[in-house]
Amino acid sequence: MKFDELNLHQSLTKAIKELKYETPTSIQQQAIPIILNNKDVLGSAQTGTGKTAAFALPILHHLINQKNSSKKIKTLVVTPTRELAIQIAENFTYYAKYTNITNTVIFGGVKQGSQTDRLKKGVDILVATPGRLLDLMGQGYISLNDIGFFVLDEADRMLDMGFINDVKKILEKLPMTDNHCFFQLQCQKI
């Protein structure tokens, strides 16, 4: 199987060709078609197997095809560390290179000014660590009312790091949607 066979939007296909992606990895072959069909995914794969592309590409495909062009957060990706959050946001930026879809990343340990400025301008995709996400939600900078896709990345690690209560608080604020992606969740109940 080749990426061309996954029926992704041509702007995504163009970007991934530039990145020299040719053959989808196992997690990508399995997850992308499921997410393209608007189904929930629970995936587990080792580091370096392309988990981010497995959820990012089909989510971007859906966002490209949406008629709603408002700059409200439509996708939320929650991950345990700032390093991983930055990496995921960079990947979304690479994949969305030939689209008008925007993303930003928020995480703690830094002043929030530049992050809140970006949020005020509006973004389609938000990549966040749990603590900063809940903090900015509490301050009124973030609404989850328009979320259509939710990804909990490195879910097992997040739970091991003690984020279970934060994850529960986030889940309570999400609108009812059929599009959830949980990656690396090892049979732990949320």
Describe what this molecule looks like in 3D.
The protein is of the alpha/beta class and 190 residues long. Helices cover 44% and strands 12% of the residues. It contains eight helices and six strands. The chain has a six-stranded parallel β-sheet, with helices on both faces. It is globular and about 45 Å long.
Secondary structure layout:
Layout: H1 10-18, H2 26-36, E1 41-43, H3 51-65, E2 75-78, H4 82-95, E3 103-106, H5 113-121, E4 125-128, H6 130-138, E5 149-152, H7 155-160, H8 164-173, E6 180-183
Parallel strand pairs: 1-6, 2-4, 2-5, 3-4, 5-6
Helix pairs in contact: 2-3, 3-4, 6-8
Helix fraction, binned, reads 40-55%
**Rg on CA atoms, Å:** 16 Å
Mean of residue pLDDT values: 87
SSE string, helices as H and strands as E: HHEHEHEHEHEHHE
Number of strands: 6
**What overall geometry do the principal axes of the alpha carbons give?**
globular
Low-confidence sequence ranges: 183-190
CA-CA gap between termini: 34 Å
Tally of DSSP helical segments: 8
List keywords for this structure.
single chain, 190 residues, alpha/beta, disordered C terminus
Question: Can you describe this structure in just a few lines?
Answer:
With 190 residues, the protein is an alpha/beta fold.
